[in-house]
Amino acid sequence: MSEIGKHVRLDHILNPKSKNAVVMALDHAAVLGPIEGIIDPVETIATVNQGGPDTWFMPIGVVKQAYEQLIEDRVPFLLSLDTCTYMGPEPDLFLLTDTVEHAVRVGASGVAMHALIGPSRTSEMLAGLSKVANDCDKLGMPLMAIMYPEGFENNKDVQHVKWAARVGAELGADTVKTYYTGSRESFAEVVEACPVPVMLSGGSKTDEPLDYLSMLKNCMDAGGRGCAVGRNIWQYEDPVAMVRATKKIVHEGASVEEAAKELANKKSGRAYD
Question: Is 148 tagged catalytic?
């Protein structure tokens, strides 16, 4: 029966028509601090939800603050199960801070966690990922594994990224979020090497919004199944418009130019279904 539960919850995350997803990331504050765009996470969620993202992922502290807003807007969430902090002595170690069972109890539609491939404590993070994947299978919860190579001369080299993504799939993730490798052709290698859906990690906010949209379009054209993005949306001057532009590419296959038209329609009300 847990397999049924996983399929039901995956349907909450993936758009029923496109089978892709626009996932909003909100797990930044412990890692980077209360940065621009998420000083008030509930306000951020309420604003971005006007654009109609498919889901969010966030730690339990934000869930406790924002669950009423998520219910009101009928937007599901994934519970973030781990964190690190750049204030601490081990910024490249993501430690488990929550459980799959807790995610079920608080109404999450899935869980998200990191594993960095390369740091000295990689094995510890992979052991945690394996345990979480097993718990997810038992309890019928989808798992998004955030798989990043770290500590290499070029962390976004396609050989490193596709290997890291494959590790996530091998250990039982249902979807994998990872770095953009710089081109449609190289990202296609990542998708080909990973037997579960691959989601784009948006990373830091780009200087120009079209750079982000072009990166997203390349990933989708390479076979990606969506994105898990934070700063490129909630740090943009009009997050609602940027969500809509993102959805045009992820769910409709729009060109960058077509999607960019949404950026001219600032604060124009709720997005279409």
Answer: yes
